[in-house]
Design brief:
single chain, 273 residues
């Protein structure tokens, strides 16, 4: 999916919501555990319920790899289900890959050829040659970690060099020589608030994937006030636990739809201004 198509979906749906599929057997409704593939059964129900309200899905690989081969099979079935039934939704594999060049090339082949997702989260710590193998696929996106919402982000990301440039700003500035606004996004945690102003000074046109709205306490209004690009929106705001675990009863899918609808309505009002 290219940038134009993504923006079109955002405008048509009046939504820039990404639903995170952090599917945990310990948190899903007990009755689903009787299913042959409970992870996929849960995902399918969540997808069918929330698809009208979002433009993107983000399965987190850790929640699938934790269950070995069965988990990876559920991940692959989820991707195929999305591509067959909701082909206009943007699929993000949240895997945070990034290694020496030949290893990154194999990761890129895995996710862009084998699974055929639209985008992949990538860690930038090893530099250019660890990222560029992911950028050679037309219509695919790299989503580079920039400024995350976890407590430990202060350990490295906010450290300054002698010129006063913080590490996350260096990542933003340097990486723009590797990719463009048409194939590279950045992860910026919703709890960073007004820091989005600083992000936009360095990367004014790139899309931002914003986790942390909902269960982690990030403010949608604040994210949009400081981070939105006029006209293009330029944001994919992710909510995972706040949507998919809105209920652990038989009504889990309906509850997820209600939470997704609430966020979509807020986003529609923000887009309209």
């Amino acid at each position: 999916m290219d940038r134009k198509e993504l923006i079109q979906q955002i405008r048509e749906k009046q939504s820039f919501l990404c639903v995170g599929l952090d599917t945990d057997l310990k948190k899903m409704p007990p009755h689903l555990l009787q299913e042959e593939d409970p992870i996929f059964a849960f995902n399918k129900a969540i997808i069918d319920a929330t698809a009208p309200y979002c433009v993107s899905y983000k399965p987190n690989l850790a929640f699938y790899e934790a269950f070995g081969v069965k988990g990876l099979m559920a991940f692959e079935k989820t991707i195929k289900y999305l591509k067959q039934n909701y082909p206009h939704h943007f699929i993000i594999a949240d895997a945070k890959r990034g290694d020496i060049g030949n290893t990154s090339a194999m990761y890129a082949r895995t996710f862009f050829e084998q699974y055929d997702v639209d985008s992949l989260t990538v860690a930038p710590y090893m530099g250019e040659d660890s990222v560029t193998p992911f950028l050679g696929y037309e219509g695919k996106w790299v989503i580079l970690l920039a400024l995350t919402s976890n407590k430990g982000s202060h350990d490295f990301q906010l450290t300054e060099d002698r010129q006063g440039e913080r590490l996350f700003e260096k990542v933003l500035r340097t990486s723009q020589t590797w990719g463009t606004k048409d194939n590279m996004m950045y992860v910026v945690g919703a709890t960073q608030g007004s820091m989005f102003q600083d992000i936009r000074k360095v990367a004014p046109e790139h899309f931002l994937l914003v986790p942390g709205v909902g269960a982690q306490g990030g403010s949608l209004e604040e994210v949009c006030r400081y981070g939105m690009i006029p006209g293009d929106v330029g944001l994919l705001v992710n909510s995972s636990r706040g949507i998919i675990y809105a209920s652990t009863g038989n009504d889990f899918a309906e509850a997820a739809a209600e939470k997704a609808s609430e966020l979509q309505q807020q986003m529609a009002q923000i887009i309209k201004g």
